[in-house]
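Board notes (copied after class):
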Amino acid sequence: MASRQDRPKSPGLKWRKRIGGDVPYWFADSAATKSGFPIKSRNLAHLVGHPAQILEQAQILQREMLAWMSGDRGGAGVRFDGTFKTLFEIYETDSESSFNNKIKKHSRSSYAVYLRKMIVHIGQRRIDECDGRDVRKWFKQWKDGSGLGAARMALAVLKAAISFGVMCRIRGCAEFQAVLSVMEFERLPSRTFAPTAAQITLARQAARESGRPLVALAYAIQFETTLRQWDVIGQWVDLDDPRPSAVLAYGKKWIGPTWTAIDNNLIMAKVKPTKTEDTTEITVSFDLSVCPMVCEELELIPHEKRTGPLIVNTDTGLPFIRHTFQNAWKADFKVAGMPKGMWNRDLRAGGITEGGKAGASKDDRRKLAGHSKEETTEIYDRDQVEAHRRVMKARKQFREKNGQ
């Protein structure tokens, strides 16, 4: 990299020491971030060796910040001028776009971050002057700067904006979509982790020994029902979310399962998986009495404490914030000696995999996971509970046979 004297200089542009050498960053003014400007900083390490591009990106970021501070934050009246910037702004603000209609609120905030990043990176480029070679270069820069996952996310947001542009007959979008349709990009490798019953037993034990019996219960429910993490611990959402809630804190409200979801026969009924609530609207039900791990954990929880949200943080008495639950998982994961790279969300895959190894039918496992579409919810619920019982019977026999 050039000497300190030759480094480009621009408002907000600073250099930070890293193992491989100094790295350029752009930082927003504190007043801008306090007013809601979505970009606090930007790592420009992928442009090291290209001082002109570093300077250009820093100046673009600075202009974006100053425009935000002056009140220019886009809106329904955005006029398309041929650039990606105005396409992205139209996509983000138009009430008919997938951004405002189909994408869940928690995903929308992530989309917004990537839209801002791409406005900075490619916003000044004209759509009708770019082709697949440009996209390949961008994808490589995104990957080198933030990793393959971030590059794939940026690509997904780009495709969504272009698709909306095609729907609106915005010039250049149809041709650009045609280019994207014939291109292939590196994909994230499929996850292969599927924790076993023995591993989950160790994680549950670690949670209990750390004074978190409800976390142990969460692991058991995740593994033996194959419910996703947020369908077991719930999630904090904005106050304007239309779903009712009596649990308010942190300036948000909590949506999730309560103890009333489990009846006296240990039937956990009509759980609506978050991932499908806006699509198939399937509900799933489970007989927890046939789940050995869940029953073990329930025996340790006094009946008088079975009120309110199902899984709470004993330190706060409130449902977990996601990162706090993840921190608990990381601690239990370490104590249990589980393989490096295994995530909490892999418990679902572990439960489904164990069912397959135990010989449970593919149809039952599909129903258990909530992947099947049925004619009516009532029929689906009864059949799904029976499917859960059949799968758990096979899984229990499998564990006994393998000494788990």
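Comment from the instructor: Residues 372-382 have pLDDT under 50 and may be disordered. The beta strands are 13-16, 23-27, 41-43, 235-237, 248-249, 252-255, 267-271, 284-287, 312-313, 318-319.
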